[in-house]
Amino acid sequence: MANPVRNLAFGRRLLMASTASFALLLSGCSYVSDELWPSLTGEDPAGGPSPVMSQQIPPSAAEANPNPTLGQSGPSLGTTNFVVPGVTPGQSTGTYVGQKVQQMRGELAQLQQQVTQRNQQLQGVRGSATQNSQRYHGIVAAVSTRLQMGTTPGNPILVSQWTQAQTDLDRMAADVGAMSNLANQVAADSAMSTYLLQSIKSTYSLSGAIDEDHRQLAVLEDETAKTVVLIDRLLGELSQDVARQSNYIGAERTNLTTLSAAIKQGELLGPGLGNRANFYAGAQQFAAIDQNAAPVSTAGRTPLVVIRFDRADVPYQQALYNAVSQAIARKPNAVFDVVAVAAGGTQAQTASNQNQARRNADRVIRSLADMGLPASRVNVSAGSNTQAATNEVHVFVR
Q1: Buried b (16+ CB within 10 A) or exposed e, 35-49
Q2: For residue 111, how many C-alpha atoms fall within 13 Å in the half-sphere facing its CB?
Q3: Which helix (H) or strand (E) holds 305?
């Protein structure tokens, strides 16, 4: 059933994003791509005149969704409650084999008791992870809703909520650590159960046994085999939980970074661009333009984004996010070239413009880092354009 409040918030977000993008295209920022879609501005990136072209970009599946999801509950964890099969008691026969059977029966009972404790720990960790996930996504949804409706840049209430969300995500990471430790313990139990089963099977070949010894051995073998299967299932489900939760937390850390950038601006950007890539140690790799790096060849290429820094504070972030996210949607393995383009002038003016253009490019790549784009997918270079009236940053996609 459609949620009218959510639909209203979503409509407002689309209206604000459309208005902001239109304003940016008229002033500070435009985006185009020769590989993905025709020019939206009709402006020659080299500065010369070109025929005006326009292209209506249809909404993506997410944008067309009448009931967008503001927060999710995280990956589903396993639900199995692992109950041991139990150990059937038996009478001592007085033989050597009978004594071995009693000894191994005690070892199986001890092993099953440990498995029961592991199961209790697993259910407790799952409950904690579920609660932390629900609380985390509740906070993120509240922040996202406030940003969709519009708020002040750096709203202290949202900053406080973001900090709480980060704390909950850290708790979820601690839950993953507990699962990993538990998986190591279960792996040791698995090795023990396999050894015990092999010992039971080898006991059949011992001499001096009576029929009752072999009957009790058969019962013990069956119960041990069931325990081995149970432990293997427990270990497999734990491994899947750890893998899913680890990937999920990594993606959410990227989303939190993007959400932090949105709070600074007072408007919602969207999910992190690098959810499917590793984004650890990201921002430091976007430090500055490498002066010794080979220039990126842009000959014959149309930029995805052209940001004109014609005033002190150009609000390019939302338009940049929209363009890059659409490029990734159409080309998941896209790599982006960020080029600082300095305006022409006298020798002194050109030198000053080059320094300013590099600082502008640094600002853009830091924005991309905040949006979650992995550093491995960005190349940075510098150039100049004597026909450009102001310093620009061009973003190309390939």
Answers
A1: ebbebbbebebeeee
A2: 28
A3: strand 305-308
